Amino acid sequence: MQNQVPQGKHWLDKVIDGIDKWQAKYQIKQLHVDDMKTPSGRVHTGALRGVLLHDLVAQVLRERGFEPKNTYVFNDMDPMDGLPAYLDPAVFEPHMGKPLYQIPKPELDHCGIDLRQASKEELVDLQNAKNFAEIYAMDFIHAFRALGCTQEIVWSHELYESGAMDQHIRTALDSVAKMRKIYQDVAKYTLPERWYPFQVICPECGKVGTTLVTDWDGEQVTFECQANKVTWAKGCGYTGKISPFGGTGKLLWKVDWPAHWAAMGVNVEGAGKDHSSAGGSRDMANAQCDQVFDITVPFNIPYEWILIRGAKMSSSKGVGTSAREFTKLFPPVVGRFLFASRNYAQVIDFDPTTMAIPDLFDEYDQGARLAWGVEEGDQRLARAFALSQVGRAQTQSFLPRFRDLALWIQYPEKDLEEEFAKVKGEALTEVEKALLEERKHYAEIWLTNYAPSEYQLRPRAEMPEEAKTLSAEQRAFLLELRDLLTERKGLAPADLQQEIFNLSKSSIGPKKAFESIYLLLLGKKAGPRAGWLLQATDEALLSRRFEEITKL
Ligand SMILES: [Zn+2]
To answer: Which residue among 409, 432, 456 closes a domain?
Structure first.
């Protein structure tokens, strides 16, 4: 049957069409895609939206022969202006106000990063991180590298120390009158009398958030380190003069952004929704490109959020809330596919506690079949599949459906390779077997952490509420079953199945008997074959559960 879904252009191709026209209009020679982030603590999943968007843009530009630069800036000159809950205030309070790259990193065990699934390489990188900014940046870098992102990393403090910012710092300091007008016109904000867009790192106490520049003579700035400039840090009172060049301080954030563009030659940078409002930081930056730094306003892609929902994630385990944890939910290609398949202007609303993960796998598989030409339909999905192939591209093969796998994996009697061979109609190839193994890993993660209860077919750790509905005769049967299991320990699953059947026939009959086993272990009326299920169930759990029957 012909699929009637409209087959428009993929949104990324439309974005690149726009860049193409824009580049011709402004006669841009070298395209430079960039994005940035302040590494002030564990990086949330939301920050992945920007990274993936920019990397996908660079990817399609490369496809079209543009050879863009592709960078990611960590704003590690920014001051620490808040303390994440997982950090010890006794250790970090004294560092409030210092630039993030000047603050010692927390110990690995107390840094708030969930290291349970960290690879050896990740641990080494985190261990070798030189400072506070770097440990959280490194954690984030590993997360987006896992999704195939290839950005070159730029550390803002190195850019300042290299002198690359000097000329733009001078321009900014010389342009206070223009800045004043921009703040007024764009943000409707009247700057105070003595205002300069620069903050010195206090040579006395090392803080940058507490200093105020009060004069600029063309060579040096005069500054004060004020006790009460901000509520979150206390300055030391030092006053003095210093050259603003070579990393002695930084531009104020709203000026720092376009100054980075000027220094690096950035001309494609999307802004997240939080910066894109009228009169917001993006408008401010654009006005400065025009009126202060004399560069072309970078091509903007105002992008939407990714929202991660689910009660489980915000409370008990916190799984999936950080970028690192989110990337552990799927294979890299499927994670990248999520971003490639969603238009940048639409919110991605993702709740792993629903069927969102199996649905995503289904969509990915459909994209694959469309790309391989074995199914007809919306070619945009095929395009998203192609763009998500990191490392070696997935060759045409049978894809074991994730939700079936997640279900069958809980049936100890099932041989998964055989089951999927039945679906496929012939034996799985080596590639398909490897894919099956990979999906098993992610199915386990889903089942353990997120799957809705109707997908949970493994013995529950606690007595299921439903077990209370067991009748007196069913309880009696279960106690007989306990004796059977004790007497005939080590029985093969098939033999055990037969023994249970025999036992049931002499008492309550097979239907009620098997139902009682499922109610007791799973809280359900059906499940995997009982002989296999019982043999696969942890012995301690089983004897505890039988014990509990007597107390029901
Ligand atoms: Zn100071």
So the answer is: 456
Q: Are residues 452 and 490 in the same domain?
A: no
Q: What is the structure's pLDDT at 312? A: 42
Query: Do the domain assignments include residue 81?
Result: no
Rounded to the nearest whole angstrom, what is the distance from the C-alpha of residue 224 to the centroid of ligand 1? 8
104-134 per-position pLDDT tens digit: 999 999 999 988 888 999 999 999 999 999 9
- 117 burial (CB, 10 Å; 0-12 / 13-18 / 19+) is exposed
Question: CB–CB of 350/306 below 8 Å?
Answer: yes
The rounded distance, in Å, linking the Cα atoms of 550 and 347 is 52
Instruction: Measure 97 CA to ligand 1 centroid, in angstroms.
Output: 10
CA Rg value for the chain: 30
Total of domains in the chain = 3
Residue 477, Cα to own-chain centre: how many angstroms?
A: 49
pTM reported for the whole predicted model? 0.91
How many angstroms does the Cα of residue 393 sit away from the middle of ligand 1?
54
C-beta separation of 212 from 227 below 8 A: no
Give, in order, the Cα–Cα distances in Å from 92 to each of 86, 87, 101, 132, 404. 11, 7, 13, 10, 48
Distance 107 CA to ligand 1 centre (A): 26
> In the prediction, which pLDDT does 310 show?
61
Closest of 322, 318, 266 to residue 289, by C-alpha? 266
> How far is ligand 1, taken at its centre, from the CA of residue 246, in Å?
19
Tell how far the Cα of 38 is from the centroid of ligand 1, in angstroms.
22
Residues of the chain with pLDDT under 50: 1-6, 311-319
Domain match, 450 and 472 both: no
469/432 same-domain check: no
| Segments forming the whole domain that contains residue 220 | 198-251
